[in-house]
Amino acid sequence: MAKPVVDTSVCVGCGSCEAGCPAEAIKVNDDGVAVVDVDACVECLACIDNCPAGAISEGE
Question: What pLDDT sits at residue 9?
Fold first, then answer.
């Protein structure tokens, strides 16, 4: 499996990904975009399903 990747040009900073992450590995930063902590990520990819803007995809 791969880590999620955030398209910062599409992210609206709503926090849905952050709220749905069981590992607390994704946070909306001060610039209003989601950032993934790849070390904490458990690769469940729940953030992809929780993103209403479609800004998160499966990376390589």
Answer: 97
